[in-house]
Specification:
- This protein is α/β, with parallel strands linked by helices and 613 residues long.
- The protein is built from 20 helices and 19 strands.
- It has a 6-stranded parallel beta sheet with strand order 14-15-16-17-18-19, with no helix packed on it. A 5-stranded antiparallel beta sheet has the order 9-10-6-5-13, with no helix packed on it. A 4-stranded antiparallel beta sheet has the order 8-7-11-12, with no helix packed on it.
- A hairpin with a 7-residue loop joins strand 9 and strand 10.
- The radius of gyration is 33 Å and the shape is elongated.
- The N terminus is likely disordered.
């Protein structure tokens, strides 16, 4: 699809009025007949020269003068005097108490309708009145649905986002004797959405009304709203929900759109982003229509350790495995292993790694293990005589590391979007949505060849959006870790990458040396439990203060924590559970100079050789 550039002079919405045109602003004030000193922010009474100080009497009159009328956001608001407003509230409260006393005293159904009507038209959020009203309507005969719908419409005019009113409207429609055409409700939703495009009650009600119908009319409705305002995020979301059946191919699971429909949606997005490149809603929609539902979790690695008699199963996504989970089945030489399963991350929550104790494998013949998760194909591992460990690992797909939800497989479509983003960056180099989308597209197409450009775009994104620098740092961490995983062998270096987290640890099960020097890590990641073969770990020059929840690593012998702010020996106490830890580096840490620190650590880790230099 050839990119089509629109003139950027088309505004997404009317330009805001300037301060000179806003009544009540510093440059146009009518409240006291005077103006404000723009330098000092003081009110100057009429007749005074700008810059002169008002007299104390004038200042007191200005502060104490009543304000019966006030303009705010372009609307005139009338405020009665305090005493009158107080009497109004007292009168309203008296009527409310009288009505509630009568309702709770057992009023007949006909009177319940009038009493609840008086309360709800003043405040539609009194849930008790809606419950009593439904009970009374159930006891009455006749067709009360039309009048009740009109009443609820009146209440929604008071509060268009009243949970009780919307729930009651759905209840009333469910008691209609004949199926409603829905025209009145659709018109109601249109009126409310014209007043507030973010009224999620109206959106959900409209989606319920059109469920099961041809989505083309609703797509046209959403398109009409977007033609008036491309910043209408709710309309984009509504459009995405309508396209879900087409993306699923009739199976109900969101996948890729059909090519022709995808082309139409990409053209719509292109119009939006060239009209207002700084608005985020169209960019979010673009990434959504290019994506699919996340793939279900699957087994990506199986590790068998003879010495520890442990089987480790590593998943592509965090899962929760019950101690006797029927979904995860293991057999060894044809015999089913009953478990139980425990988390390899040391905490009872969904995780990537799950462990199971094994009976002693035979020493004179191979041990054949088969692991099955849910309905997936079984994964087989063979532990030969004399081997200390064995594993099976799934080959890595590059795109899954960088954009696992990407559902568009045609490289030409992605290349066209790359070209559109590059053209737009020439006009708007600080467009945050464009920078992020372009980085993701390049990573999905050619992560290694486009690494330099991707890094440049992410740095530009961090500079353009300082309020979300943490999010950008996480994106950068994932990109650098994914690149390293693609080229990993027995050793893996992620030194000086600015990492705040270490993603893709579940993909490093076969790594024996891991270098994380010079990053911004504050603790040992819990997902380290996936590294069943790790023997050396270097975390020097980070911000680690304690071991935290990191689980014991069964084969780790060397751990370096040099130049980390570790000041207490108790922060390293969990290392006593690491069975093969022999060397611990703590050079230039506060613990080395703390009174009694080294001695206390020697008591906690008696079998570990600790070096402080």
């Amino acid at each position: 699809m050839a990119p089509r550039r629109l003139p950027r002079c088309i505004p997404a919405c009317p330009a805001p009025a300037t301060a000179a045109a806003i009544p009540g602003s510093a440059r146009h004030s009518r409240r006291s007949g005077g103006c404000r000193d723009r330098g000092k922010g003081e009110r100057i009474p009429p007749g005074s020269a700008p810059g002169s100080a008002p007299s104390s009497a004038a200042a007191r009159r200005s502060r104490s003068a009543p304000r019966p009328a006030e303009e705010m956001h372009g609307r005139l608001k009338l405020r009665p005097p305090d005493s009158a407003r107080r009497r109004q509230r007292e009168e309203k409260l008296r009527h409310y108490r009288e009505a509630m006393d009568a309702l709770l005293g057992g009023a007949p159904p006909s009177q319940v309708l009038s009493l609840t009507g008086a309360v709800l038209t003043a405040n539609p959020d009194v849930g008790t009145c809606w419950n009593l009203r439904r009970r009374a309507l159930g006891a009455l005969g006749g067709d009360w649905v039309p009048s009740e719908l009109a009443f609820v419409g009146q209440c929604l005019g008071v509060n268009p986002k009243s949970y009780g009113a919307w729930h009651h409207r759905g209840w009333v429609l469910g008691h209609a004797t004949a199926p409603s055409s829905g025209r009145e409700d659709l018109a109601l939703c249109e009126r409310l959405l014209a007043a507030d495009p973010r009224n999620f009650h109206a959106w959900e009600h409209r989606r319920a009304l059109v469920a099961g119908q041809d989505p083309e009319a609703e797509l046209a409705f959403a398109g009409a709203l977007l033609s008036r305002d491309f910043s209408n995020f709710s309309a984009w979301h509504h459009r995405l929900r309508l396209l879900a059946p087409a993306r699923g191919g009739g199976e109900g699971k969101p996948g890729a759109l059909p090519p022709e429909k995808l082309k139409e949606e990409l053209e719509l997005v292109q119009n939006a982003v060239f009209t207002d490149p700084t608005d985020q809603s169209a960019w979010v929609y673009l990434r959504c229509i290019l994506s699919r539902a996340p793939p279900p979790p699957r087994v990506i690695c199986v590790h068998v350790d003879r010495e520890d008699a442990t089987l480790a199963v590593i998943f592509s996504r965090p899962v929760k495995v019950n101690p006797t989970c029927p979904e995860l089945k293991v057999t060894m030489d044809g015999s089913t292993l009953a478990g139980p399963w425990r988390s390899g991350e040391g905490r009872p929550r969904p995780g990537h790694t799950w462990l199971c104790a094994l009976p002693a494998p035979p020493t004179d013949s191979p041990a054949h293990l088969e692991v099955t998760w849910a309905d997936s194909a079984p994964r087989q591992v063979t532990l030969l005589p004399g081997e200390a460990e064995a594993w099976w690992q799934e080959p890595i797909v590059e795109r899954e590391l960088f954009w696992p939800e990407l559902g568009v497989a045609e490289a030409q479509v992605l290349q066209e979007q790359v070209q559109v983003c590059r053209e737009l960056l020439e006009l708007e180099p600080q467009s945050r949505g464009c920078l992020l989308t372009l980085a993701l597209l390049l990573a999905a197409l050619d992560p290694r060849g486009g690494a330099r450009e991707i890094r440049d775009h992410l740095e530009s994104l961090r500079a353009a959006d300082p309020l979300r620098s943490g999010f950008v740092a996480d994106v950068q961490s994932r990109f650098e870790a994914a690149l390293a995983v693609l080229g990993a062998g027995e050793g893996l270096s992620l030194a000086n990458k600015g990492l705040r987290s270490v993603p893709f640890l579940e993909r490093m099960a076969a790594v024996s040396r891991l270098e994380l020097v010079g990053n911004e890590l504050r603790e040992l990641p819990a997902a380290l439990g996936a590294l069943r073969s790790l023997r050396e770990l270097d975390l020097s020059d980070n911000h680690v203060t304690e071991v935290g929840v990191a689980p014991p690593l069964p084969r780790l012998r060397l751990l370096r924590l040099d130049r980390n702010p570790i000041g207490h020996a108790s922060a390293l106490a969990p290392l006593a559970a690491w069975p093969r830890l022999a060397l611990l580096g703590l050079a230039e840490t506060p613990l080395g100079s703390a009174p009694g620190g080294p001695a206390h650590l020697a008591e906690l880790l008696p079998g570990v050789d600790v070096t402080f230099s």
